[in-house]
Amino acid sequence: MAMPPLSAIGIENYRSVHKLFMRVGAVNVFVGNNGVGKTNLYKSLELLQQAALGRITRAVSEEGGVDSVMWAGDLKTHEKKRIILRADLGDLSYRIELGLPNPISDPALPFETMVRDEELTLLTGKKPVVLMQRKGPSAFLRSSKGGKVTYDNELLPSETALASIRDGSQFPELDLVRRAITDWRFYHTFRSDRDSLLRRPSPNVTTPTLSSDGSDLAAVFATLKEIQKDTFFLQQAVDDAFPDSKLIIEANGQDCRFALQTPEIRRPFPSQELSDGTLQYLALLGAMLSYRLPSFIALNEPEASLHPDLLEPLAKVIAKASERSQIWLVTHSEQLADHIANHAGAYPRRIYKENGQTGIDGLKITGEFVGEEY
Question: β-pairing, 27-31 with 349-354?
Fold first, then answer.
């Protein structure tokens, strides 16, 4: 079954985001200055994936705990002091609430981040149909036959029902949402120092998708060469950025390696000798042009360390990747955003902060943007 695309996200009370609901398109580009909350939008998506992996409470604790990442502004009397995240995937909507335990009644460690509520809803029809609802340690689910299955006192406060209940035959929608979200891939700025994993050979293993740290970049290139037997778009992107240059790819039975052949120098430059910017660009090519792309790719300031001349070639690669994957990108660079608009037709959204609260220009309360219909 095909992975459903991310169609909307909702964020409440997470860092600088008080309340935000937004429809999501094929290519989503967000531009803003430092400190306006771009990264908080990106991290909220990462937390949703951690929910699917069963690690969301640990991830929040690693950020300092609920009190550290909770919206610090005023709450209205009816608003809960909870972090609430929502992802709509096609006609399915997953929602999770995180909070602190009641020291008297909740079986949790003191001040532990805990899952308070979860819900999976089918949005088609005249009114939503609840397929899974979790309150504290208990959850009920609607099975594929329409019956109700109850899990009483089986979930710890650190666990999510989304990750813990794994019965795809009884609960196919829950299984589909979990698989769709775990398939997402997040790429921060890759390390490019002397000890960077990008500079090392990769194990000689067919690798269809680049890992988040880029450690298997050479194997991703080798997979395109040896398995797909087509490096046209990869070599085109290299030549676009470094005219008349070519990527040399080797799989020797023990490991995979790559080097860059430029017109100025007779011998190719191995990965250990490449500049930081060149290596960053090649890693982004691995992420965007690999044999198999994930259903959703999030990029956090990919322009870091890149020369301005590389921004348009990168935008072309992102546009090419959007033919096979949904793209989410946050950037400081107006130039990169403009190039993506030209090549992918994606209008950049400007993020701002007002009175400590992150907002997006033109975003309506319905989740649509002014002048657009979904």
Answer: parallel
Spatial neighbors of 56 by CB under 8 A, at least 6 apart, are 47, 48, 50, 96, 98, 115, 160
Q: Read off the pLDDT of each residue in 69-79 and give the average, rounded to a whole number.
A: 81
Element (H, E) at 236: helix 232-241
Q: Which two tokens stand for residue 102?
A: 């009641």
Q: What 3-state DSSP class applies to 10?
A: strand
Give the burial string for 262-296 (b: 16+ CB within 10 Å, else e). Answer: eeeeeeebebeebebbbbbbbbbbbbbbbeebbbb
Mean pLDDT of the chain: 93
Nearest alpha-carbon partner for 75 in 13, 131, 25: 13
How many distinct helices (H) and strands (E) make up the chain? 10, 18
How many Å separate Cα 354 from the centre of its chain? 26
Reduce the DSSP state of residue 331 to 3 states and report it: strand
Among the listed ranges 148-162, 222-236, 325-339, which one has the minimum average pLDDT value? 148-162
C-alpha distances in Å from residue 67, one per residue of 51, 79, 86: 19, 16, 20
CA atoms lying within 13 Å on the CB side of residue 285: 27
Residue 373 — very low, low, confident or very high, per pLDDT cuts 50/70/90? low
